[in-house]
Amino acid sequence: MSGPLLPPGFLARLQAFDLAARRPFGVQPGGLHLGGRAGTGTLFRDHRPYAEGDDPRTMDWSVYARLGVLVTKQFESEEAVRVVLLIDASASMAAGDRERLRTAARALAVLGAIALGRGDLVDLLAVPGGRRRTFSGRGRLPDLLEALGSVEAAGRTDLEAGFREGLKGVRGRALAFVASDFHDPRGATAGIDLLRRRGWEVRALRPVAPSDLEPPPEGRVVLVDAETGEERRIEVTREGRERMAEGARRRLRAVASALLARGVPWARVPVSGDGAALLASLRRGGVLA
User: Fold this and answer.
1) Where in the chain is the domain with CATH 3.40.50.410?
2) Which residues contact 98 (CB under 8 A, 6 or more apart)?
3) Which of 160, 169, 112 is nearest to 136 (CA)?
């Protein structure tokens, strides 16, 4: 992937955001315990009306811009949280316009930048074939961005096996973000289920390109499986295009339903979107607060 993942000046915009988590209390990795009081931390809990003397950095300016009401963000009192960034680097992520993988990396770069800026421990793992790397401290952000930007797509999707192998040695609870097209023949949520069995809180990011929902034009076409290279020649008719489009929408809905049934919020991230669209999709999907 070429060019910077995050454009110049974009990092300053991230100060208005935090990682969203539903669990109000619990034990964090390394034996850290979240207290029952609000404090300064990474995990957003709730809003309350602004009170004189509140730190301006904790005010939610996006709410003020929309509603003209001053509110203050409340966070769980904590020392550190383990944030695990998991990116699907199988060949299907580079199919078509090849921007799907870059969009996934950009979304995870945003989340990693926020986590490092709040003092969290960040793990990065690309599947398949990746080696888990750990980053700590805001000074490691360039290293994290370089690692994300160097991910290349190849191989077949098997998120469950990749997560099991790549996350060996990681103990305790974590907040995990999985960026994938979820075209896993073992089941779209197989990797998600493995993380949930660990007791982790999981968020899913799904890069969606226009080509995902737009069938090929009418006429004779060759369909190529991005992961196996298998070719299939078909004649596309008008009725066939309509069936293919409906099938694509049905697959998208099926993955969304499977994630929501497991209580896993997910963000549909547009491949063609700019930085503002990326942030909006992450917030709309319950990934950012």
Assistant:
1) 79-208+263-284
2) none
3) 112
Each residue's pLDDT tens digit, 81-101 = 899 999 999 988 886 556 889
Entry pTM = 0.76
Q: How far apart are CA 34 and CA 26, in angstroms?
A: 6
Per-residue DSSP letters for 67-95?
HS--EEEEEE--S--EEEEEEE-SGGGGS
CATH of the structural domain 79-208+263-284, one choice from 3.90.930.12, 3.10.150.10, 3.30.479.30, 3.40.50.410: 3.40.50.410
Amino acid letter, residue 38 = A
Token couple for 116: 């490092």
* The token pair that represents 70 in the structure block: 């001053």
User: In this structure, are strands 38-49 and 19-20 parallel, antiparallel, or unpaired?
Assistant: parallel
3-state secondary structure of 243: helix
